[in-house]
Amino acid sequence: MGSVKLEELRPCSPTRRGDEKILEVEKVYQRLREWDPPTYNLLVKRFEFFVGVVEDLAVELTRAANLICDMVRQSILPNYRLEEGLVVITAGAFGDLSYMTYRPRYAPGTKPSAAYEGLNKFLIARDYRDINFGSGPDPEDPNNA
After folding, report:
1. 2: closest CA among 119, 134, 96?
2. Could you write out the three-class secondary structure of 12-76?
């Protein structure tokens, strides 16, 4: 299996929009100096892949927060965050300008050591999670052909 290195996520940079701090994936396909359809299509594919990775990692962090809350309730404080409920994440705007709020969780019985096993395994596992935006490993990695 090919590997994605965290350094490859460098096209992602923190940006400010008004009072909000957001993580933005650079649209490198917009920087072509001359029209070259194969290069353009490759860069769009890479952009979409990295957007999916960033979105799915944000969902995974939310999922992990819910697992930690469950563990605290089971072993330390039974009423921990009961009033607040699950940790949620909102995504959008989608094509119809709507937003969706999700409550991601691991499958029942997931052990903490098996919840997240590193980026490369996650790229495969995200296809089987309750919520995901991207899919699979890097399609441009020759080891995944």
Report:
1. 119
2. EEEEEECCEEEEEECCHHHHCCCCCHHHHHHHHHHHHHHHHHHHHHHHHHHHHHHHHHHHHHHHC
> How far, in Å, CA of 114 to CA of 11, rounded?
29
Residue-wise pLDDT for 67-106, tens only, equals: 999 999 999 999 998 888 889 999 998 999 999 999 999 9
Instruction: Give, for 100, the enclosing helix (H) or strand (E).
Output: strand 99-102
Q: What residues have CB less than 8 Å from 37, skipping those under 6 apart? A: none
The one-letter amino acid code at 16 reads R
CA–CA gap between residue 43 and residue 58 (Å, rounded): 23
Amino acid at 8: E
Structure tokens at 30: 């917009």
